[in-house]
Amino acid sequence: MNRKAAAPRDAEDLAMHRGTGRMEGLVEPVLFGHRLKVILLFLVVSIFFAVQMLKLKPDASFQNMIPASHAYIANYLKFENELRPLGNVVRIAVENTRGDIYDPAYLETLRKITDEVFYIPGVDRGNLKSLWTANVMWYEVTEEGMTAGHIIPEGLGGSPEKLEQVKTNVVRSGRIGSLVANDHRSAIIMAPLLESDPQTGEKLDYGQLSERIETLIRQKYETGHIKIHITGFAKVVGDLIHGARAITLFFAITFALACALLYAYSRCLRSTAITILCCSLAVIWQMGIVSLLGFGLNPYSILVPFLTFAIGVSHAVQNINTMASEVHNGRSKMEAAKATFRLLFIPGTVALLCDVVGFSTLLVIDIGVIRELGIGASVGVFVIILTKMFLLPVLMSYVGVSPACLRKQERKARSRHRVARALSRVTEPRIARAVAVLALVILGTAWHFSRDLKIGDLDPGAPELRSTSRYNQDNAFTVSHYSTSPDVFVVMVTTKPGECGSYPVAAAVERLQWEMENLDGVESSASLFTGMKKMIAGSNGGNLKWAAITRDRYISNAAHKSLPSELYNNDCSMVPVMLFLSDHKAETLSRVVRAAERFAAEHDSEDARFVLAGGNAGIEAATNIVIKQAEVQMLLLVYGIVALLVWWEFKSWRVTLAVMLPLYVTSVLCEAIMAQLGLGVKVATLPVIALGVGIGVDYGIYIYNRLEHFLERGYTLGNAYFETLKTTGTAIAVTGVMLALGVMTWVFSDIKFQADMGLLLAFMFLWNMIGAIVMLPALVAILMPRAAPRRKVSEAASKAARGFQLSE
């Protein structure tokens, strides 16, 4: 084919997209007229962003993982100092595997560990609790009145009498089941955490904190007869950060897979090298910009560089495919690079803008880590537009394609394309209708199973980690050996200052505790009045008939003063009611929230208002509520805005429907798979749908853009789709496989939510690819039966073609 014969091909493409075509017309002369300057500019910017990238550090904070603006969280933060011992707490259970805790060597080890924890930066030392700390005491009623003391007496030594005294003190303290295991073989050190390191003033580094706990506690003190079990939010995040460090291995595997697939597809070493270079630069730019924005790398956003690289490579496949085709048709390296730029600028830019939109919808979710993931992914796709659309064509104008690539292109041209010819039959009316019916059956079946999808965690322990992880084993030990669950839901009862111990408040709290303790999923409860009743009984000879709330203010005040200050706030205007739950599964939290809200609505008064919610379970309940509300909003936004962009490019609601329907089918299928695999919609899985839709729409845009091109040239729909499959279709198939393989490496991560995201994204990428290749043309045949043959190219296209020929 001579150059003039090939010229109208890009001209027609530009004519169909006049607005974007004018932009392309402005950019192309600058881009290819100053190639060395463009390369130098990209080099300087890349060096700058590489320096910024090196400043990135692991970053995860408690407040960044929760919906900060939700009413529950606002209530929690209002009383954060009082509720800190019930929220962000590390529990260290020290187990004696050879006996009980009443052993001199064990108690000495427990003391040393308590001291070690006390000096770890970030620990709220005033609220640290252990059998050795002064804020844990025993109380007893004697003939002389109330007596109290520390659980570990001074001058403990190792005498049997002293050890027996410790055992008696433990029983008198009422700490069995909370600080001491039910079987007396282990004891817990509770270490509430501050959000900022008091020594540096900076946000607490959970990765460093976890390492210190592992080094100073577990590695130092765990022996043959002493076993350490560590639980708490900070330890979960620390383990996630530690596991995320292995992500470099997965990135290396993805990098190698991308290189291998690109070379196998193109048979061109130079094109593969240039493409990988541009995609690597996109990753460097993305991470550099994220650093400049003040973000760090948390266990969620650390996956974004994977996506940036994979998306860049998948789009660059189209460049290699088009460049090879143009050179094979007789154009020089410069001419072929310009033609590639013209042909891909419009569909590629619109497709990547759809990706940006899909990712940016994550910003509606008021959870810091998800917003950072959305911003990072949007930035990554935006820089791909620059490196893939502008830098890659310029570099390819220098290197061109290899003879081996041209020989492969020649073999493709002589091939009979049996697969493409068979697939092109989906445009036949009878087969198209059959495909549509099959799609409806799949959609209906998927929708049926997706109804079982739940919001929140569906597994005990830390679902972000695998069930065999050390953390989940430690959590299982704590749950099985202690009565007070680590999953604490707190209802804050507010009243007038100084009135937190009054009878109206006591009566309301006691009624709340009674109702909640009879709720499935609540194991026990505790409040200021739980301790007051014991103190009142103790003041009356230990008679259990007196273990009740009282209207006598003098009696209640006397009992009140003897109780720890953590059971009420400084001005006595708030009493926390602690509900210890059997687990933090989605159904349990929903049941507790409904019951607590119903109780508050029925019993709120001037004397006592019931405010939700604190504790780690209360915070997780708020997170589930935000995710449930944001899920529908996010889906409407991502589908609505992406549909508008598709309509803006093709100016047809039928085309928009044909492109969007396969994406919707895939989304519902993904939800069905999540429901059957026991995966809830939560912080880790909610972004998957937005990511899948944003990237999946690329396939449909590239497919229909090339299909429209052949229709405009007068091809029938079947022939037009056959030609589309021979060119763009092959690249789309390679793209889908490449993206799927790129994220499938996450399946081997020690972090379960990364493995879940990898599995779900791989499924969505592959099914979106199948939908674009099979379902989209069938829908075009049904919705646009007169789509072919089209009229001749418009006058604008003819003018553009003549202008192109003159420029040549």
Report on the structure:
This protein is an alpha+beta fold. It has 3 domains: 414 residues, Multidrug efflux transporter AcrB transmembrane domain (Multidrug efflux transporter AcrB transmembrane fold, Up-down Bundle); 143 residues, no CATH class; 151 residues, no CATH class. It is 63% helix and 7% strand. Strands 7-8-6-9 form a 4-stranded antiparallel β-sheet. Strand 2 and strand 3 form a beta hairpin. Helix 6 packs antiparallel against helix 8, helix 12 packs antiparallel against helix 13 and helix 12 packs antiparallel against helix 26. The longest helix is centred in the C-terminal third of the chain and has 36 residues. The radius of gyration is 33 Å and the shape is elongated. The N terminus and C terminus are likely disordered.
What global shape is seen? elongated
How helix-rich are the residues, as a percent range? 55-70%
CATH level 4 superfamily of the largest domain: Multidrug efflux transporter AcrB transmembrane domain
Backbone CA Rg: 33 Å
The termini sit apart by 15 Å
Which percent band covers the strand fraction? 5-15%
CATH C-level of the largest domain: Mainly Alpha
* Number of helices in the DSSP assignment: 28
Name the CATH architecture of the largest domain.
Up-down Bundle
Strand arrangement, major sheet: 7-8-6-9
Mean pLDDT: 80
Number of strands: 9
The domain count comes to 3
Low-confidence stretches: 1-20, 788-808
Major sheet: size, sense and barrel closure?
Answer: 4 strands, antiparallel
Structural class: alpha+beta
